Amino acid sequence: MRELVRTVWSQITVRDVLIQFVVFAAYFLMGQLGLSFAYVNPSASAVWAPAGIALAAFLTLGSRVWPAVLLAAFLVNVTTAGSIVTSLAIAIGNTLEAALGAYLVNRFAAGREAFRSSNTVFRFTAIIALCCTPVSATVGVMALALSGFAAWANFATIWMTWWLGDLSGILVVTPLIILWSTGPFRRRWTEVAEAMSLLILLIPTGLLVFGNLIGSHDKNYPLEFMCVPLFLWAAFRLGRREAISVVAILSVIAVWGSHLGYGPFVRASANESFLLLQSYTSMWAVVSVALAAVVSEHRQSAELSRALAITDPLTGLANFRRLNEVLTTEIARSSRTGRPFALLFLDLNGLKKINDRYGHLAGNHALRRVADALRKSCRSTDTPARFGGDEFVAILPETDEAGGQVVARRVADRVAADLTAKPPLSISTGIAVYPRDGLTPAMMLAAADSVLYQVKVARPGPRRRVASGR
Asked: Which of 34, 130, 165, 294 lies most in the core, judged by the most C-beta atoms within 10 Å?
């Protein structure tokens, strides 16, 4: 037993201890704050951010955080109301809620990636609402009722408050933590400026809706619809991270305002006010993140479509459409600057023989080998492309004939030096220079192709050849 304890203790690092402490402190402090809004029962609050903290910790750090969650949940309740037994039962229920939620979300909703797709966002919501939060609410309220700390007649009200508090806490806090703890964080300055503009409008709008910014005697104007444009702005323009941040900021303002008696959800019963508020917050948390995910999916689909439209699927190089666009642009630029550019026209020798002898899969692999050699031989400013069949083209900005010859030899050497792959390959190359060999894309391509054809006819064979237009 001592050896087991010594082994376990030796595996605990300072980082593990720090992680446990951070999770414990965050849960405990937010739990104390949440129970200050417990109106229907000292142990049941409609504002319960610790549920979101616990689930985020389980999803990002794994099940090793359960001791911190269990201890924090126990201390929060035992120092507020109830007995040791009820506090322990509540702590177990809260820990099971987070552990079960993490398991089901990892199993059915992509885990930490749950907020990157609208489909998994709704799966996440269903799992939390129907499978996880009922566990904590049922265990907690049963423990209070059986021990006499809650009346059975109030079971349904307390259960609903408990369930909705955990649900809203998870739907707001969990995506907030996960999305801000995962990158990338790079933003263009225009996006940062837009986010700051949204924040500048967000705070006064929140104070107007959920506070008493205008100082009116009527403290409960039905102005909650004024928040909708801000939710949509963040979702459609900025992204998932900013969308859930808007909901979280407005949620804090709304809780503060409702506690003071301001806002459209205030009723005669304080608990009823918070139930209405948390229903509103939960709905917009799901809708905002889902909309942001839909917009992100649409953008990725558009980018993929754009990439497929200009990329050769076999080699990954630019296709003929992209080649023609770049060539037209380069001719216009060269005409303005007066600087020449070179056009390489490359041909893989003997592709038909490779297909006949080794099969078409080997032929495709040979084309990819040439494409890879061409890509590695070009600069970032160059445009390598597949012209069609066994022919490739490279546009070399601000390059004369000598520079084109250097690149052509570099490609040929790379192809010939690849001795590990079979069969051995060789290429032939023709070079055209603007404006000497043509003034339009068609003329440039025809000139380079003509030189290439003349070289292949004059000197057929497996060796590489490099020629230029005159």
From this structure: 165
**Alpha-carbon span 387 to 393, nearest angstrom:** 6
Tokens of residue 281, six digits: 């917050």
User: Considering Cα of 253, then 254, then 256, then 257, what sign does the dihedral take?
Assistant: positive
**Is the pLDDT assigned to residue 316 strictly greater than 80?**
yes
Asked if residues 37 and 18 have their Cβ atoms less than 8 Å apart, the reply is: no
Coil, strand or helix: which one is 351? helix
At 302, is the secondary structure helix, strand, or coil? helix
Which of 232, 218, 293 has its CA nearest to residue 261? Answer: 218
Question: Do residues 121 and 225 share a domain?
Answer: no
For residue range 115-138, list pLDDT tens digits in order: 999 999 999 999 999 999 999 999
Q: Which of 166, 347, 390, 449 is catalytic?
A: 390
- DSSP reduced 3-state for 430: strand
User: Nearest-CA neighbor of 141 among 164, 109, 173, 111?
Assistant: 164
Nearest-10 Cα torsion for 34, 37, 39, 40: -30
Residue 315 is assigned to a structural domain of this protein: no
Mean per-residue pLDDT for 242-251? Answer: 95
Count the domains in the chain.
Answer: 3
Strands (E), 106-219: none
Residues 284 and 369 in one domain: no
Residues 221 and 73 grouped into a single domain: no
Query: Percent of the chain scored above 70 by pLDDT?
Result: 92
248 found inside a domain: yes
**Residue 93 structural domain:** 1-182
Is-contact 91 73, C-beta < 8 A?
yes
User: Are the CB atoms for 242 and 195 separated by under 8 Å?
Assistant: yes
In the residue annotation, 390 being an active-site residue is answered as yes
